[in-house]
């Protein structure tokens, strides 16, 4: 029996380091008499086996339905257990990047942030030992910072026994060709150390360990960042120069880059958490530690200033710029290179006389890493607090950044896939999550990098297990840290996952299936833990010891959960539409998304209902409100039907039963638009009630996938310019639309602001001073409604809306959901906020009783102009800015209310002979008005009729041009030839104006629909 120890190992209770025999006996847990009488292998093997059984009882993850994933989970768990387990809690050793399975680099790096979640929820003593390892090397870290001209502590990129930087040698086994230039500028390792200190304290609540050990490290790291950040009087912000971010491709020739977004945002986060600690930690210990590290009141004030003025750059598309100047780099055409060449792209480019630094291509996620560390809301609030005006909500902003950087990431490191898989789940891109997870699984299992023989990637292995636990089974801390949330999203083939997990000092046995979570509280660790409730399916649970409960998690009980669910369906639908457009039809990837929509539908159908059958959800802890879910449920059912069975089935089950003479209307509409010859230069259309069915809440009126596919095919095949022009706020329209990028123009506020097809924002002219005031107001209002006390006001009525030159926030809804005193208090708070933003009184506040409308004070002339501005003037503005050539036509204008009539008037004034109109209405007075303006007008009863007509026209045009669309076996693009022939004969024998005379009994004679030969030009634009 052999036990190995070194002089570096800590002494054990009752034994001196030099007492080798007794120490070995202690390590083996065997006494002298036992050793003397051991004659059988089993006598040694059994306690060994028992020790392993105890480890596996805590660490094992059981996965039912996927043998490869199960093998991966246990392989990765095994390597993590032999790399670090409770037996080393007294050893002076950190978490190695390679473990002990090979002879490659065994140093400690920033990979610890990926390893920590596994150990913290299984063996927290391992995490404590690692933090003790970091603390023991704090003096060396301070010397490292001083050597580079900074205060505080800077931990090395590669750390070993001494704590000095050991990332330079080129003689490491298997790493002879690696470029170590500028690795001493990888300062973000400090963020990893700080983050893990905070994580450990949050999970264990060990105040004494915080005060004795962690606090000094955290203060020294903060001292470093405040000394690195430099103020610029030019822009009034702090900048961090000369760093290398997680993407080590871009080093600026070894000098480091300026304002790396990940570095700057995480620095602000570190300062925020430090200032939070100042309020809770023992003040005596705090004062002593601050004095020891030199953190004076002036330094604390500087930290506060940096926290509110840190610089973060943005691209013209409105995404976070990786570092200053990144957006100017051209993208690299990766399709030109083989997989092997991509894995060593730096060498390949260098051989061609090029540099990888000259291209917008990342080795691994950089900017997106901030979303791996922090929640979307945390990132969003940091940027708002820094004074940046983010147009989107936190989920939409994440999706935009995710899409931008995914196409620029090379995945040269296996961690890249695990990072993107976790973030992809936040975007509800379930197909991407699974694909990236499987790529991550195979990295070491199949030796994808060719370096597994040098040692496995412990950080990557732990990160894949974290995907299983935090992403697929959905166990994570809530944003407010008040509870632990379990929100499962199992892959399609997985039927059950079982595991044990330590949550705030309590051991839970968790079983997750497709429908419910079973939770059992088993025992307690010896930790000073703060007990937090577990949230599952809208229920907050606190279990007694050795008790268990089963909860169905497809449940929604609050307004916040309702909007979160609809936001997820938006991302799923967007992914479906994007895949459909890029692959020219249906693919297996789309089928994987249907289950997510089905889960959302099931959740909505199971919302608690009143005795009258009306859905009810909680607005806050005291108030429940009624919720009409007709739109949300019906559109999900139509989507699922369309995706599973095809368009004909959807027509049969959801169109024909509710729309009289549906087939005749579609046939007539196709004829009206010219069928296979349909060709418009401009499509100008309203949204709600025109191309999208009405919903009682704009915020949840997420466009359905079938609707987007129908509209997108028409815009692609039959129109050169497609514009959605509404009176709604621009950001609100973006948040509920799932159309593909670079296809439609979104014009809002009656056309005074818009996003072009490239995603660039433009607006009408506005006084610079007023614009600045409104921008400041909007940021303050966003911050206000994210505060817990006022969140409810963003969930009722109109919510929070920013139109051009006007901001609106609800203080009440039609049902009186908010108590009068709270509503009045909110009104006073908003008025006070407006006064703080603009003390001169140049902001007007109009209270309707339901909404608080805030707008800048205008001159009488400007007020008159604003009051008379309509969509017709908005169309003129768009025509001028976008060069639409409305005067040349042909134009198709679609609407459903009198507010849309000015669009028809403007189009007819500019192009009277080549403008057509379609209106969705049954209002005879409106019908008469529209048809009097435009004789080429078609009246329809439903938005579904309009988009179906558009879809059929696009389909006919594609058939004429010899293009086909891939579809699953049950998908039918339309009626059979025999049915079409019968219908054509029937319609030909009837009056071509039949529909008009049937619906337009009061229409002007000239408004009757003309024959197809005269109604649409047969040539293109």
Measured by DSSP, the beta-strand proportion falls in 5-15%
State the secondary-structure class.
alpha+beta
Helix amount? 40-55%
Largest sheet report? 8 strands, mixed
From the alpha-carbon coordinates, what is the Rg to the nearest angstrom? Answer: 32 Å
Main-sheet strand order equals 20-19-18-17-16-25-26-27
Unreliable segments of 5+ consecutive residues? 11-15, 169-178, 966-1021
Query: What is the arithmetic mean of pLDDT?
Result: 83
How would you sum up the global shape?
Answer: globular
Number of helices: 37
Q: Let me know the number of strands.
A: 27
What distance separates the N and C termini? 88 Å
Top keywords for this entry?
8-stranded mixed β-sheet; 27 strands; 37 helices; alpha+beta; 1021 residues
Offer a concise description of the structure:
The protein is of the alpha+beta class and 1021 residues long.
Write the layout of secondary structure elements.
Elements: H1 20-28, H2 32-36, H3 41-59, E1 61-64, H4 67-83, H5 112-120, H6 124-136, H7 138-147, H8 189-204, H9 207-228, E2 230-232, E3 237-239, E4 241-243, E5 257-258, H10 261-280, H11 283-293, H12 297-309, H13 339-343, H14 345-351, H15 369-373, H16 376-385, H17 394-406, H18 415-426, H19 430-445, H20 458-472, E6 475-477, E7 484-486, E8 496-503, E9 506-513, E10 516-524, E11 534-536, E12 539-541, E13 548-552, H21 559-582, H22 588-605, E14 615-618, E15 624-627, H23 630-645, H24 647-655, H25 662-673, E16 680-685, H26 705-718, E17 719-725, H27 730-736, E18 745-748, E19 753-755, E20 761-763, H28 768-786, E21 800-803, E22 806-810, H29 820-837, E23 843-847, E24 851-856, H30 860-867, H31 871-882, E25 891-895, H32 901-910, E26 915-920, H33 924-933, E27 937-940, H34 943-960, H35 977-989, H36 994-999, H37 1012-1015
Helix pairs in contact: 4-20, 5-8, 5-20, 6-8, 6-9, 8-9, 8-10, 9-10, 9-11, 10-12, 16-17, 17-18, 18-19, 18-20, 19-20, 21-22, 21-26, 22-23, 23-24, 25-34, 26-34, 28-29, 31-32
């Amino acid at each position: 029996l052999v036990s190995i120890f070194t002089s570096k190992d800590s002494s054990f209770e009752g034994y001196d380091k030099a007492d080798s025999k007794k120490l070995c006996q202690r390590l083996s847990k065997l006494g002298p008499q036992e050793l003397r009488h051991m004659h059988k292998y089993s006598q040694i093997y059994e306690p060994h086996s028992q020790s392993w059984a105890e480890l596996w009882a805590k660490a094992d993850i059981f996965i039912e339905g996927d043998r490869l994933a199960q093998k991966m989970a246990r392989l990765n768990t095994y390597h993590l257990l032999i790399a670090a387990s409770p037996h080393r809690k007294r050893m002076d050793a950190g978490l190695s990047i390679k473990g002990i399975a090979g002879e490659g680099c065994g140093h400690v790096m920033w990979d610890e942030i990926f390893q920590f979640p596994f150990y913290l929820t299984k063996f927290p003593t391992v995490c404590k030992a690692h933090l003790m390892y970091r603390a023991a090397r704090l003096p060396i870290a301070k010397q490292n910072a001083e050597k580079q001209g900074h205060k505080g502590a800077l931990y090395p990129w590669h750390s070993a026994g001494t704590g000095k930087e050991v990332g330079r040698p080129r003689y490491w086994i298997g790493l002879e060709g690696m470029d170590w230039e500028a690795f001493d500028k990888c300062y973000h390792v400090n963020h990893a150390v700080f983050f893990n200190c905070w994580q450990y304290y949050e999970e264990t609540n060990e105040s004494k360990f915080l005060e004795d050990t962690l606090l000094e490290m955290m203060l020294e790291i903060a001292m470093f960042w405040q000394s690195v950040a430099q103020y610029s009087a030019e822009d009034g912000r702090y900048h961090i120069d000369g760093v290398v971010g997680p993407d080590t491709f871009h080093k600026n020739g070894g000098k480091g880059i300026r304002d790396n977004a990940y570095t700057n945002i995480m620095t602000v986060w570190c300062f925020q958490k430090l200032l939070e600690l100042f309020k809770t930690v023992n003040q005596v210990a705090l004062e002593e530690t601050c004095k020891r590290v030199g953190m004076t009141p002036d330094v604390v004030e500087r930290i506060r200033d940096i926290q509110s003025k840190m610089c973060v750059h943005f691209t013209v598309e409105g995404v976070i710029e990786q570092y200053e100047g990144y957006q100017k780099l051209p993208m690299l055409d990766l399709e030109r290179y083989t997989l092997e060449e991509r894995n060593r792209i730096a060498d390949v480019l260098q051989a061609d006389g090029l540099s990888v630094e000259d291209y917008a291509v990342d080795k691994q996620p950089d900017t997106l890493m901030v979303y791996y560390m922090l929640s979307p809301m945390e990132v969003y609030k940091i940027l708002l607090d820094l004074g940046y005006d983010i147009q989107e909500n936190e989920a939409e902003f994440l999706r935009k950044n995710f899409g931008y950087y995914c196409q620029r990431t090379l995945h040269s490191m296996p961690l890249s896939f695990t990072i993107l898989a976790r973030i992809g789940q936040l975007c509800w891109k379930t197909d991407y999550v699974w694909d990236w997870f499987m790529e991550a699984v195979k990295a070491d299992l199949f030796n994808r990098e060719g370096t597994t023989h040098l040692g496995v990637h412990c950080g990557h292995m732990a990160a894949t297990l974290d995907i299983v636990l935090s992403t697929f089974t959905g166990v994570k801390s809530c944003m407010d840290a008040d509870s632990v949330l379990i929100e499962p999203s199992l892959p399609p083939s997985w039927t059950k996952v079982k595991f044990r997990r330590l949550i705030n000092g309590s051991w839970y046995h968790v079983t997750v299936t497709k429908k419910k979570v079973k939770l059992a509280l088993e025992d307690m660790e010896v930790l000073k833990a703060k007990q937090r409730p577990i949230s599952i399916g809208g229920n907050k649970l606190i279990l007694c010891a050795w008790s268990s409960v089963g909860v169905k998690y497809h449940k929604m009980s609050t307004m916040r959960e309702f909007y979160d669910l609809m936001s997820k369906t938006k991302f799923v639908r967007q992914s479906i539409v994007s895949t459909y457009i890029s692959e020219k039809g249906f693919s297996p990837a789309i089928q994987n998304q249907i289950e997510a929509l089905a889960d959302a539908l099931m959740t909505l159908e199971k919302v608690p209902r009143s005795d009258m059958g009306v859905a009810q959800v909680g607005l806050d802890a005291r108030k429940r409100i009624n919720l009409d879910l007709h739109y949300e449920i019906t559109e999900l059912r139509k989507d699922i039907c369309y995706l599973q069975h095809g368009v004909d089935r959807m027509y049969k089950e959801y169109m024909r039963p509710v729309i009289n003479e549906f087939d005749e209307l579609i046939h007539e509409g196709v004829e009206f638009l010219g069928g296979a010859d349909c060709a418009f230069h401009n499509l100008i259309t309203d949204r709600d009630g025109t191309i999208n069915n009405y919903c009682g809440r704009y915020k949840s009126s997420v466009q359905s996938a079938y609707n987007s596919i129908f509209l997108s095919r028409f815009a692609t095949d039959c129109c050169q310019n497609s514009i959605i022009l509404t009176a709604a706020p621009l950001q609100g329209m973006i948040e509920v639309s799932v159309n593909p990028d670079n296809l439609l123009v979104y014009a809002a506020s009656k056309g005074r602001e818009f996003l072009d097809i490239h995603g660039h924002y433009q607006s009408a002219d506005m006084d610079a001073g007023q614009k600045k005031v409104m921008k400041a107001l909007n940021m303050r209002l966003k911050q206000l409604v994210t505060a817990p006390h006022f969140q409810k006001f963003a969930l009722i009525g109109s919510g929070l809306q920013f139109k051009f030159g006007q901001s609106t926030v609800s203080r009440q809804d039609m049902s009186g959901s908010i108590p009068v005193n709270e509503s009045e208090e909110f009104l006073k708070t908003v008025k006070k906020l407006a006064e703080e933003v603009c003390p001169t009184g140049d902001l007007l506040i109009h209270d309707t009783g339901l909404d608080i409308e805030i707008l800048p004070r205008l001159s009488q002339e400007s007020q008159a102009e604003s009051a008379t501005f309509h969509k017709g003037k908005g169309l003129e503005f768009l025509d001028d800015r976008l060069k639409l050539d409305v005067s040349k036509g042909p134009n198709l204008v679609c609407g459903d209310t009198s507010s849309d009539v000015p669009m028809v008037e403007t189009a007819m004034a500019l192009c009277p002979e080549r403008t057509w109109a379609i209106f969705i209405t049954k209002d005879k007075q409106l019908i008469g008005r529209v048809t009097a303006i435009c004789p080429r007008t078609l009246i329809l009863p439903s938005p579904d009729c309009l988009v179906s007509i558009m879809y059929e026209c696009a389909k006919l045009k594609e058939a004429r041009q010899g293009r086909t669309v891939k579809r699953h076996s049950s998908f039918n693009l339309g009626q059979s030839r025999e049915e079409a022939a019968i219908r054509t004969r029937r319609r030909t024998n009837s009056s071509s104006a039949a529909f008009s005379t049937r619906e337009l009994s009061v229409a002007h004679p000239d408004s009757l629909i003309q024959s197809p030969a005269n109604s649409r030009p047969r040539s293109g634009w």
